[in-house]
Design goal:
Layout (H helix, E strand, L loop, with lengths): L1 E4 L4 E4 L43 E4 L14 H15 L5 E7 L3 H11 L7 E5 L4 H9 L4 E5 L4 H7 L4 H17 L3 E6 L7 H19 L4 E6 L16 H10 L8 E5 L6 H10 L4 E4 L13 H12 L9 H11 L18 E2 L2 H9 L9 H5 L4 E2 L6 H12 L11 H15 L8 H10 L4
Parallel strand pairs: 3-4, 3-10, 4-5, 5-6, 6-7, 7-8, 8-9, 9-10, 11-12
Antiparallel strand pairs: 1-2
Helix pairs in contact: 1-2, 1-10, 5-6, 11-13, 13-14
Length: 451
């Protein structure tokens, strides 16, 4: 069938309609995932076109996936974090939704506290067991959307559920129909999509979900879950690991619109951020993240990273307040006792701290030489220096300017700098190997008569 695509303004040929391919045994892509070896990244040089949506946004799983790898938050802590998400996302609600468990009284109390705030964003959505009673519970709590787990790889269908593909599909469709008939938007979580038979199960299944949605008249969403972080962003990579191929296929073979499509990444292979950005570029409106990347195993895509990625791709923050990122980091460390690795981009205490004298010298001359952007304005985190054997006079000048003579421009030839540098050099000549902290430097400055 040939049709004229109004958005692309060209004649398009509709693709083959994929049907469920049943199997007697699971298809585990053993050459690609040998298990006793590192997984293989293979290529077939089939390149999907970059096709970003008109709108992109962030969704949050801090209170769902983010609670599966740390001590549970209290309802009051959740309410505080929810307010910070609202502030960070700005008036346009770029942080569009966040999801809550509905299992316990604690979960429900947290949800109610957040509902009582009457904030427009992020929209509160649910995460429930796939039962009709739970759908009714979600509806009774005033939720319009809930997540449903629909595992889609043969690893899960055959080994976890002990079913074949048709049995799994029929059961899933029944559950989704129950959700839609209660008036709840179903957000279908296609777990383990990067090990699934994309054309033999995923596309036929999502096509049937979409048909059901149109019949009942309630839209659905599909969350493509890279459960073990296998997704790769490379053009020409072969399925099922190709993120461009997955997003292109869901849009063009299963008929999904960008706003129906969301990517959920994990960081097992250090690709969570680039994988999420790739999903945006190839046609998914939503990327699902958690604050600080806290989540199962190595964690989810860090939400704060995608705020910065949004601005890089769109050229604007669209009203997001990036200074809230530091507020969030401070809250986690000071109130929740969570230790953020100091070198973590954007949120770590040392993400823009230099120990190299040549870098400190550059920062003294022009901060822009060695700072990623104006971190003082955008993240409320000015670039700083740590004093070691390699800091040199420039590093000490910078430290004095930031900690002792605040606001004064200190040159590296300043007598006060040279006096403190002589003391620092003596420390390392005596075989010291550790960084000299600010408390110790301040004490030395007093003893040397610098202060």
């Amino acid at each position: 069938m040939i049709y004229f695509d109004q958005r692309r303004k060209m004649l398009m040929e509709s693709e083959y309609s994929y049907q469920l391919q049943e199997r007697d045994d699971p298809y585990l892509y053993r050459e690609m995932f040998p298990y006793t070896e590192i997984p293989k990244t293979t290529f077939n040089n089939r390149v999907s076109p970059v096709d970003p949506p008109d709108e992109i946004w962030i969704t949050d799983t801090t209170f769902r996936d983010g609670q599966q790898s740390r001590a549970p938050y209290t309802p009051e802590q959740i309410a505080t974090i929810y307010k910070l998400l609202n502030k960070l996302g700005g008036p346009k609600g770029i942080i569009r939704q966040t999801e809550f468990f509905l299992y316990s009284k604690t979960d429900i109390n947290a949800l109610r506290l957040c509902q009582d705030l009457n904030l427009p964003f992020p929209e509160i959505t649910g995460w429930i067991r796939a039962t009709h009673n739970d759908f009714e519970l979600a509806k009774g709590m005033g939720l319009k959307e809930c997540g449903i787990l629909v595992s889609c790889s043969d690893y899960h269908i055959f080994s976890k559920l002990k079913k074949n593909r048709k049995q799994a599909m029929d059961d899933y469709l029944g559950i989704i129909k129950d959700a839609l008939e209660t008036g709840i938007r179903a957000r279908c979580h296609l777990e383990d999509i990067t090990r699934a038979d994309f054309y033999g199960f995923v596309i036929p299944f999502v096509t049937e979900i979409n048909k059901l949605s149109h019949e009942i008249g309630i839209p659905i969403k599909i969350r493509a879950c890279d459960t073990l972080g296998y997704g790769v962003p490379y053009p020409g990579a072969s399925m099922p690991r190709s993120i461009p191929g997955i997003i292109y296929g869901l849009r063009n073979y299963a008929g999904l619109k960008p706003e129906q499509l969301e990517w959920h990444g994990h960081n097992d292979f250090y690709k969570a951020v680039v994988g999420s950005a790739t999903a945006w570029l190839y046609g998914a409106s939503g990327v699902n993240c958690s604050l600080l990347g806290i989540g199962e195993r190595t964690g989810n895509t860090p939400l704060e990273a995608m705020v910065i990625e949004y601005a890089q791709l769109r050229g604007t923050l669209d009203g997001m307040d990036t200074t809230v990122i530091k507020e969030i980091a401070d809250y986690y460390e000071n109130e929740l006792g969570y230790v953020i690795p100091p070198k973590t981009p954007f949120v770590g205490s040392e993400f823009n701290v230099t120990q190299a004298g040549i870098h400190a010298d550059g920062l003294l001359k022009d901060e822009e030489i060695y700072n990623i952007f104006d971190t003082t304005t955008l993240l409320n985190s000015p670039p700083t220096v740590a004093i070691t054997s390699t800091s040199g006079a420039a590093g000490i000048a910078m430290w004095l300017g930031q900690n002792v003579f605040i606001g004064e421009k200190i040159e590296k030839t300043d007598e006060r700098v040279l006096k403190l540098k002589a003391w620092v050099d003596a420390q390392y000549e005596a075989e010291r190997v550790t960084t000299i902290g600010s408390v110790e430097l301040m004490e030395a400055s007093k003893n040397l008569g610098i202060v």
